[in-house]
Structures are given as structure tokens and as C-alpha cells.
Amino acid sequence: MSTRLFPIIVFSLLTLLSCSPSRESSSWKQTNEALMQNLRETDSLAAIRIPILRSPTLEKNWGPPTIETSPQGTYRLSYQHPEESFERLVIYGSPLPFPVLSSAPDEERDHLVDGELGIVTIPQSWRSTNIMDREIRWFTETTGGGADGDYFSTEGFPLTAPDGRTGHYRLVVESITDQAAPRFAQVGW
Prior knowledge:
4 helices, 35% strand, single chain, alpha+beta, Lipoprotein, globular
């Protein structure tokens, strides 16, 4: 083997090792958090320039969402079931694309192993749902515990409104009643 190829091979192997699913998932979470880090609660979406993706059905059934916006033009709408604290839909909107995962990250579950609470990872596949006539992939982001339900997340996706403006969105459902796919499908302009 040529000595000139050795550094390339080592670099390639290190790159492959650094792109493990758990590291990719961690980077994905950090990038999503960075996109939304300056959100502040407000009572208006007037400053947001991207189309506002919302859930008219949940607004009718659960009431208006909590609104948060940032100076960078991002927003978060949080819909909370009035009587079920573990049932919610969160819509994130951004003028910038959200990061993309190459594969669904492993599901991490708390599990008793030999009397000790530990984390067990379980491979998972993408699931898909129809959001505004588009197939969108989603996965279990975290499993619930005593203080929350399971969290399910879509990957980031762009949508273009009838007026031609485009935004980038990511949806998160918290649920203990297996309502992720139906809730994802309840969004619109």
C-alpha cells in the first residue's frame, strides 16, 4: 500500500467512526436546539415572515397554543390538551432548514438490568405520515417516564404556502395514547 494512501484511509475510517448513529443523533439534537435557542413567549406571530403552520383542529378542541418567537424568525407553537398533561403537539417553524438524519436513531429506553436502572438502545426504523399531501418520516425521539409521555419527532421538512413563501418545519408529539401519526396530520395553514 502506498504511504500516500495511508493518511486518506485513516482519515476515512475516523470520519466513518465519528458518524455513528448515536453521535449523529446527538449532533442533530444540538443543532435543533441551537436553531430554537432564542425563543421568547409572546402573544403574536406578526414578526414571523415564513408561513405559519398551525393546527386549526387542536386550536378548536384544546384552545390556542402557547406562542414563542425569536429575532431570527423562528417560532414554536405548543398545543396542550387541557385535561391530559402528557398529550401535546409542538410545531417548530424556521426560515432555515432543520438538520437531516441519515437514519432513524436508536430508541433509548430506561430498563432495569440486574436491579439497576440503565438505558437500553433498540434499533428503530422510520415511520411515515402524510402532512399536507407529503410523506414525512418520523421516529420515537424519547420514551416517557414518570414525568412525561413518549416524544415522537418528524424530521425537518420544507413546505410552500399558497402565496409562494416557503418555511421549514419540524413537529413533535408527546403522547401516552399512541396519537403521534394522527396529530402530525392535523396541521395546516
